[in-house]
Structure formats: structure tokens, C-alpha cells
Sequence to fold (101 residues):
Amino acid sequence: MPVASELERDVLRALEQLQVALDAQGVDCRIERVIGKPARRDAPTIELTISRQDSVIRTVQFAVQANETMAPPSREIGFIVTPAAWADGGFVAWLERTILQ
Fold:
């Protein structure tokens, strides 16, 4: 998958590790880039679909912004990964809370 920044590459690598960990538990994790609405022009939008035995457990969307200047997330996009949110673990904490709801 082409990436727009090193931050997006790091996020996608972490999501691949999440896929492997969930797969070991019998849970599927599909990672897709959102194209069209509600995708943002200013940041790549990624959707995770967590499922088990063809039953969707949770779908979440987030954007990856390589700089800190960006509007707050929309209702569809639950989080914006910035360099600061990546470095301080904020994204990982949000993702964990969101998946486990």
C-alpha cells in the first residue's frame, strides 16, 4: 500500500502486528484505506474492521496526519494520528479502548 509519510508507514506496520496478534486469537482484522467520503483530503484515512467468523465486531476509522496542524476528528473519523499522538502512545491507547468497547 503506498504511503504519504513515514508516520503513515509506522502506523501501518503497527497495524500489521495487530493483525498477527488478533489472528492468533481467532479474530480477523482488515485494514483498508478509505477513498471517497468520509476520507479527508488533508490526511489519509484508514478503516479497521474487526470480525470473528464473518461477524463484524467493530469498525473504526482514523486519519494519519504527518504534521500537527489539523482540524479535530469528525464523527466518522474517530482519531487523528499525529506525530505527537504516535510518540506519546495516544493512538495506541485510543485504539485499544475503541477495539475493546
Notes: The two ends are 29 Å apart (CA to CA). The helical segments are 6-24, 83-87, 90-100. The longest strand covers residues 55-64. The CA atoms of residues 7 and 44 lie 11 Å apart.
